[in-house]
TrEMBL record:
Keywords for this protein: Coiled coil, Cytoplasm, Endosome
Source organism of the structure: Donacobius atricapilla
The keyword Coiled coil is annotated on this UniProt entry: yes
Pfam family, one: ALIX_LYPXL_bnd
All residue ranges annotated as the BRO1 domain in the record: 27-359
Protein known as: PTN23 phosphatase
Coiled coil ranges: 520-547
KW Nucleotide-binding (keyword) present: no
Protein location: Cytoplasm; Endosome
GO biological process, one term: early endosome to late endosome transport
Amino acid sequence: MEAVPRMPMIWLDLKEAGEFAFNAAVKKSAVSVPRDFEGCSTLRKYLGQLHFLQSRIPMGHGQDAAVPVTWTEIFSGKAVTHEDIKYEQACVLYNLGALHSMLGAMDKRVSEECAAGAFTYLRDHFPHSYSVDMSHQILSLNINLMLGQAQECLLEKSMLDNRKSFLVARISAQVVDYYKEACRALENSETASLLGKIQKDWKKLVQMKIYYFAAVAHLHMGKQAEEQQKFGERVIYFQSALDKLNEAIKLAKGQPETVQEALRFTMDVIGGKYNSAKKDNDFIYHEAVPALDTLQSVKGAPLVKALPVNPTDPAVTGPDIFAKLVPMAAHEASSLYSEEKAKLLRDVMAKIEAKNEVLDQFMDSMQLDPETVDNLDMYNHIPPVLMEKCAALSVRPDTVRNLVQSMQVLSGVFTDVEASLKEIRDLLEEDEVQERKLQELLGRVPPAPGSPPGLAEVSKECSKYLELHEKASFTNTELHRAMNLHLGNLRLLGGPLEQVRAALPTPTLSEDDKQVLQNLKRILAKVQEMRDQRMSLEQQLREMIQKDDITTSLVTTDRSEMKKLFEEQLKKYDQLKVYLEQNLAAQENVLKALTDANVKYAAVRKALAEVEHKWNTTVQTLVASYEAYEDLMKKSQEGKDFYTDLEGKAAKLLERARAACQASEAHRQQLLER
C-alpha cells in the first residue's frame, strides 16, 4: 500500500479584507500575503501586534476608539462590518488556518495540525456571531477536517515507513473517527445551510474517505492476523476490507481521476490479498472464519493534535511596537482571569466530551437512525429505478411477444437441423448394417475393392456437425431457461403499475409493533433533544466567557484583592454549570430507556429487515429481467444465425449422404451379381 496514489484533501478559501482604519502599508502587507509559509509568518506577526494594540487601546465593541472593520464572508461573498478590533483578529486568525489548510493540501502534506490549532483558538477565544464562516459549527467542522487530514498524512508516512500492521490499522481507524465527526457536522441541517453548495461535495468526499480508510484499517488488521498465523481472522478482515472498499467505490462516483486511481490500486491490493487468503484457507489451513463482530474492534490512535496558538509569543510576533503606550498591569491581571475562565471551560468540556464519547459509541453500536428506523414510507411507492423500467416497456408493448417469437423461430430451425442430422446418421447406420451383411455373405472382412469413398467423408462431416449441434444444444437450452426465468417479470413490468406495486413485498405490523416503533422514535427524539440542549448550553457558556471582560474592574482593584474578585466574577457561571450537570446526569437514564426500547424493537427490526431484504431482492430481480431482455434477443438472433447456417450445411450433407448411400447400395448389388 506504500505506493497507493494520494487522496485529495479539502482546503479553505481565505477571507478578503475590506475597510479598517489602520496604517495602509501594514494593512496591505497583512491581508495580501503570499500563499506560502512566509505568508503564515506575516499573518502571525500581524495577529500578535493587533493583540498588543487591543490590550492597550479601547478598540473593542462599544468602546471609545472602536473603528469599522470590514471583511468578506466566505460562503455568501457579502461584506460584513463590525466596530471591533477583535473582528480583525478573528478574520486574520481564520486566514491563518485557511492558508495552512491550503499548504497542507499540496504535495508536501504538512500544516494541517497548524490549521486545526488556528481554528481551535478562534473557536474558543472569539465570538461566533461575527460571520457565518466563523460560527461554532463551521469551526468545529474545520477542526475535525484538519485533524482528519493531518492523521491521514501520518498514515501515508507510516505506510511508507513500513510501520507495524497493528499500528497502521489504529492510525487509519483514527482517520475514520475524525472524518465521522466531520460527517456528523456536515449532516447537521444548520451546518448544511451555512455551507451552501460545497456541503454536498465535502460530504461526498468525506463519506467516501470514511469507507476507504476503514478498508485500509481492516486490510492491515488482516496483515497482522497473517503475521500471527490466524488464517481464519485474516480471511474475514480482508473480506471486510473488500466490502468497505466497494462502498467507497460506490460513493466515489464523480470524484477526480486521482481518487479513482487510488481506489483501483487499493482494489488490486485488497482483492489480491483476499483471494489468496481465502484460497489458502480453503485448501491448506481449513481454519474456521469468525464473524467480524466477534473480533475486537480497531480502536483509533490519535497521534495528531491541534497545535496551540499563542498570539503574544515574541518568537512569532517580533517586538511589541505598542509597548510604551499602556502599563501592562491591567493586561497581566486580565490574562490571569482569562486563564481562570479557560480552566473552567476545560473542566466543563472534559465532562461534556467524556459523556459525548459514551453517547456516540452507544449510538454507533445501536445503529439506530431516527429518520429511517422503520422505512415504512418506501413501501408506498414504486422505486424510481423500477418506474423507469416500466415506462420504457410501456412504449415497447411488443417486447414479450418479440422475445417469444424469436425463441420460437430459433426452436424451429433447431428442430430442422436436428432432423437432418438424424436422417444422415440413420442413412449411415443403415448403410453400415447392409455392408456387414454383404461381408458375412461373401465371407470377406475388409471392404470390397472399388467401394464408393464418399461415405467416409460424409460420416466425418456428420460427426463434426453433430458435435457442433450438441454444444449449441446446451446453449440453446440455457437460453430457453433464461427466457422462461425473465418472461414473467417482463410481463409484470409491461403491465399495470398496480400489479407491479402488488408484487413488491410490504411489512405487516400489529398494533403492538407500531406502539414499539413509536416508543423507540420518542426516545430517539429525547436523545436528540438532550444533544441539542447540551450543544446550546456549551455555546452559551463559550459566548459568556468570550464576552466576560473585567478589565475596567481590574484597573480599580488592588492586587491583593484579585483572587477574591476572580472568585466573585466566576460565580456568574454557576447556573449554566448546574444546567449542564443536569443534562449530563440525565444521559444514563435516557440510554437505559433506549436500551429497553431497543430490546423490544429487536423482533420488529428483524421483521422489517427481512421485508426490506425481500423488497430489495424483488426490485433487483425485476430490474435484472429488464436489463436481460436485450441480451436474450441478441443471443436468440445469434442462435438463429448459427442454426440457419448449420441447416444449410446439413441439408447439403443430407443430399450427399443419400447419393453416397445409393452409390454404395449399387456397388453391393454389383458384387452380389458376380
